[in-house]
Amino acid sequence: MNKLTATNISKTYQSGDHQSEVLSNVSISLSEGDSIGVIGSSGSGKTTLLQILAGLEIPDQGDIYFNDINLSSNNAKNFHLMRRNLFGYAYQFHYLLDDLTVFENCNLVFKIANDKKFNKNSKKIMQILDELGITSLQNKYPYMLSGGERQRVAIARAVVHEPKFVLMDEPTGNLDQENAEVIQNLTIKLSQNHNIGIVVATHDLNYAGKLKSVFRIENGDLKSVQNE
Ligand SMILES: Nc1ncnc2c1ncn2[C@@H]1O[C@H](COP(=O)(O)OP(=O)(O)OP(=O)(O)O)[C@@H](O)[C@H]1O
Ligand SMILES: [Mg+2]
Fold first, then answer.
1. Domain residues for 212?
2. Please, are residues 215 and 222 in contact by the beta-carbon 8 Å criterion?
């Protein structure tokens, strides 16, 4: 079973002459099909941790392993390719491209990879849009969508290339409870259906409680909530 492991991760941000250690010697591991919730107050380091796990941010210390491959020690090109294939990322502020339709936003990952298999990719995109209940939005532009619909598109875009792990940053942020619950259940179903390991940063304890395990970031530490 594929596994993502982060060991002894530390990250300090410098702003002016002030330094703040956001993550201090943090370790976490995630298997295929697993689901982990990361909670903690605003500014505690949730986004930072997710970005480090996905290789979008480099830690000051520590390593990220995919099975026994140390992603942090790979040469840049390999790391870049592995990262693109292994991970999906749904951003806190979803960053859909305004000039592209829903379908084109989802197709972006294949375009960037210069993947010419349009028919196969197109089928995959339509399957995921269907699973997320947004097939009818495929030709719409982001400005035509509600917040909840945009979140679903951002999630679709994060999974169309069949990643092993998906990092979701506040996928239910700014949604009412009803829409939030729809997205919660969809993300959990996606993880189960495709055997994807998900890490979800959320302020919503109800959502976190539906995931297999929950961790809290506090003063740079990452603690299992069950052990508190
Ligand atoms: N690029 C950066 N440069 C300097 N400081 C940063 C940078 N990114 C994040 N920080 C700081 O690191 C801390 C953690 O930020 P992070 O975005 O990880 O928090 P968060 O838990 O995701 O918060 P929120 O719940 O508001 O999304 C914050 O104090 C933030 O100001
Ligand atoms: Mg954040």
1. 3-227
2. yes
